[in-house]
Amino acid sequence: MPRDRHVNRALALQRDPNLPPSLALEPGACPIMRPDGAMKERLERHEAPLPVCPDPEKCPVRAFFASAAAAGAPVELEVGSGYGRFAMGHAAAHPEIRFFAVEQDEARVARTDVASRKRGLSNVGWLAGEARYALEYCVPPGSVSAAFVLFPDPWPKDRHARNRFFRAPNVELVWRALKPGGALHAATDDASYFAEAVAAVDSDPRFERVEPYWRGPDEQTDFERKFLAQGKTVNRASWRKRG
Ligand SMILES: C[S@@+](CC[C@H](N)C(=O)[O-])C[C@H]1O[C@@H](n2cnc3c(N)ncnc32)[C@H](O)[C@@H]1O
């Protein structure tokens, strides 16, 4: 499918030879991370036999986690990193961690990759892909110290509700990715989605509620700053994986 002009422009900026090496995790033609319509259907329906990783040796996500493990660095991740303001602020404040940011919008990822290289960050890996598939097929189970889901799309219409991230199958994926004692942090301006998200995680006894993670100005997301400027309330909750 031909790419939009703005995607091509973002990808061209990303290829600037004067920048430090790219931090984007290039999924290439991986049918799981970059599924076509037919593969999406299969992934959504969990149609047996489930797709398997076509070539684990070449998987950039597995390589990212393996390199962190070899260095003894904790891995934290973000689902839907948008323009990456939180990911960059958090990774800059915690050089000891490796931060895996997954965002489905290719242009946003290209721009965050450029921005983080300009900032001199080297501990972030950006993946342009579907977070649910990355969690299910690429992230090693029990490998993540903290997962952030900040201002996820609320999908307010009932007929789109299945797209909301905070549903039992995705809570399960986060649980599987986390280490015992690992944390899940959520924030949203949408009060009804917040109540739904809290109910989805609270109803899983393998998680326990902990003090909400507080993010300072350098860790506020782009959407958060917009909502705060509009006088909206930010709802936050955090959980710990028991065990
Ligand atoms: C409302 S925006 C919030 C972005 C950012 N977290 C912020 O607060 O500025 C939600 C983001 O999640 C991304 N997103 C939604 N569903 C996703 C999925 N399943 N996998 C990866 N990214 C997703 C969207 O493309 C969008 O950039």
Verbal overview:
- The protein has one domain: Rossmann fold, CATH 3.40.50.150.
- Helix content is 37%, strand content 19%.
- The protein has nine helices and seven strands.
- The mean pLDDT is 93.
- Bound molecules: S-adenosylmethionine (SAM).
- S-adenosylmethionine is lined by residues 80-82, 102-105, 108, 130-132, 150-153, 221-224.
Radius of gyration: 17 Å
- Overall residue-averaged pLDDT value: 93
Strand tally, please? 7
Order of helices and strands: HHHEHEHEHEHEHEHE
For this entry, give a set of tags.
globular; Rossmann fold; alpha/beta; binds S-adenosylmethionine; single chain; 7-stranded mixed sheet
How are the SSEs ordered, and which strands pair?
Blueprint: H1 5-14, H2 37-45, H3 60-71, E1 75-79, H4 85-93, E2 98-103, H5 106-118, E3 124-128, H6 131-138, E4 144-150, H7 168-177, E5 178-188, H8 191-202, E6 207-210, H9 222-229, E7 235-241
Helix pairs in contact: 1-5
This protein binds S-adenosylmethionine (SAM).
Residues 80-82, 102-105, 108, 130-132, 150-153, 221-224 line the site of S-adenosylmethionine (SAM).
